[in-house]
Amino acid sequence: MKKPQDQLDLIYQNYIDLLTQVENDPFTTQFYKALKSGSNTVYQKNMSESKAFDETWIKTIESYFPSLDKITKNPKSSLKYDEEIVAIERAKKVNSQSIRHLASHTHMIKEVRRDGSVMPKKIMVQESDIDYGIYENRFIMTLIERLFHFVRSRLDTIKENFDSYEKKHFNYQSAFKLNQTNVDLSIDVTLKDELDNPELNEYNKKLLKRVEHLDKLVASLKGSQFMQLMEGQKKVIPPIIKTQIILKNVDFRNAYMLWLFLDRYNLVAYDVTVKEKDLTFDKAYLKDVERLAMTSFITITANQNKRKELYDEIELKAYRKKHFNVSTKHIDDVIEEPSGIELEDTNLNQYFLEQNKKLFKKDLDEQLEKSSTYEVGLKRAIRDLINITNGVYESHFQLDTETDVFRQLVKNDDPEVLLKELKEKQRIARIIRETKEVDYNNAIRLERSLLKEIEKNDQRLISSLSKRQEKSITEQKELERLKNERQMAKENDKLLAESLKYTSKMKEELQKERQQTEELLKKSVEERNHLENVKLLAEKEKLDKSYEEKLAKITSKFELEKKQQSQEVEKQIKAFKKEQADKLKEEKKRIKAYYMAELKQIKEEKRQKEAHIKVKLRAQHENNQVKLESKFEKLKERTLHKLEAEKTAYENVLKLKNQKEKEK
Q: Which keywords annotate this record (predicted)?
């Protein structure tokens, strides 16, 4: 069998032989003469283009992927408390929040009994639930969805631009006059083949396999149990809030760095290697080009003359002729620049936001140095930022409102065009104004919400201060009571001192009278001393008793408060332990349910695989059975044929034997 190239050469030679036979025809001679006297341009070029894609983004995602995988397998969570008012019969557990709520909503109290116990009709209960919808998990969910589209779009782009190619371009332009006919002939042929570059093809194939593997990994993240838990949660919107978990946790910090990389890397970069050369024409090649021109002319002219009557019946279509645009380059021969293929839009993202924040901070610092107050500096910095945005609008849409002297000198003769331009500018200005109004309304809403927060915190501060004031008043009363007791003790001491002073004075007087009536004085002194001692002992006993009573009261009060506080602490500890036990129980239930689901899934997969293997073995057994039956039938048929042949041979032997016996 001949190769395609050999067949092409054979057909080409037969084609040349046929044209050689009509070389001496008068029309052929006249055509070649007219063709050579006209304007002829021949162009032929051979070009090759090969692309090598950049793998930086693949290495970056592969390095950060383990952190994402670790986060999705062990997601962060928090406890969410749902408050609900239920009938007292349905309340399972009550905490301090329930008591406070009941104290502030007395209409829920059914009765207050004689012993002081309260029986409510309804009460507020709190139910705890594990909440995975925290900001950090929503950040990871949004990042995985961004990463999925990031990798998938690059995979599709690399597949579309994977192959390198070699292009051969031939172009022939001719203008000549044949008899009274002006002929403009144009022939353009482009041949495009795949470029055989083993090293580059091997590199691109390995790169494509890596991207496909990476796409599978990211798709597994998108279909993970973590994404199912986060289904229905709100995505995060830049700028990303740098929480303590994102800043301190290594895996979340890697996820944040990957977010910044996705913001910054919006191209599929590649290197292009281009080789080209201009191909020359020899006399034989130019002769073949002339033959091609004649063949094209004859084919078109002969067919149009042959179908002239049919073409004359077609109605003419009238149209207005417009001017043609003149092109100086051929689009097929323009080599594209290796500038990369842009996939993601470059709207506000985390990377550009960080850059703009740095510029704004620098401008704010400069304005604060120049300004007298912080408010003036901040207003100037914000005004500069707004002026930049307005400058972009005015420059892009040509919304310059200042008087342009040059435009006044140039008069537009078409008022319809001018009116259309002005209407378009007015429409753009209206869109800008409406957008700014939305931003202004958002700023007002933010200010109102902040004012509400300020009012709420003011109320909390006032409530806190009032509680502190009440506590201070109680402490002040206690201090006054202690102060009064100290004052009373001082007065008692003073009375005792005066009494002792009076006694000593009386002793001095008695000593003076002792000389006169020594016996009487002695007796009188003894009696008086006895009375004074009794009085002092009584006073002392009274003071000691009062002190002991007060001390006992204070001690009993302190012990009671201590006992109440210890009971309250024990209650809180028991409630906390019970709550933790409930949480642990719920977590064990969740883990057990997850384990059972995984076990069920594994069993189901095992059952499906066993069923598949059984079906496959059954089909294989049936196939083998059919083959054995077929072989048995063939063997049976061959055996029957063999037996028939042996039988025939045996009968022939018997016949020969009988003939011989007859002959004898």
A: Coiled coil
Cα separation, 601 vs 393, whole angstroms: 58
**Contact assessment for residue 194 and residue 163, using Cβ atoms and an 8 Å cutoff:** yes
Task: Give the confidence band of 139 by pLDDT, cuts at 50, 70, 90.
Answer: very high
Instruction: Return the amino acid letter for 197.
Output: N
Residue pair 235/138 in contact by the 8 Å Cβ criterion: yes
How far is residue 43's CA from residue 216's CA, in Å, rounded to a whole number?
A: 48
Q: Which value, to the nearest 10 degrees, does the dihedral of the CA atoms of residues 326, 331, 336, 340 take?
A: 90
Residue 581, Cβ density class (10 Å: 0-12 exposed, 13-18 middle, ≥19 buried): exposed
Which pLDDT value is given to residue 344? 52
Q: Whole-structure pTM over 0.85, yes or no? A: no
Pairwise CA distance, residues 74 & 132, whole Å = 11
| Token duo for residue 83 | 């408050």
* CA–CA gap between residue 247 and residue 249 (Å, rounded): 6
First CA to last CA distance, the chain? 68
Q: What are phi and psi of 560, to 5 degrees?
A: -65, -45
**SS3 of 44, please?**
strand
Can you read off the two tokens belonging to residue 553? Answer: 């009261």
- Residue boundaries of the structural domains of the chain: 78-131
Q: Is 197 exposed, middle or buried (0-12, 13-18, 19+ CB in 10 A)?
A: middle
Residue 274 · residue 167 · CB < 8 Å: no
**Residue 307's pLDDT is what?**
82
Pairing relationship of beta strands 165-178 and 181-194 according to DSSP bridges:
antiparallel
pLDDT at 506 over 80: no
Q: How far, CA to CA in Å, does 269 sit from each of 51, 58, 137, 392?
A: 10, 12, 32, 28
Residue type present at position 540: K
Model confidence at 410, pLDDT cuts 50, 70, 90, reads very low
CB atoms within 10 A of CB 260: 15
429 class by beta-carbon count within 10 Å (0-12 exposed, 13-18 middle, 19+ buried): middle
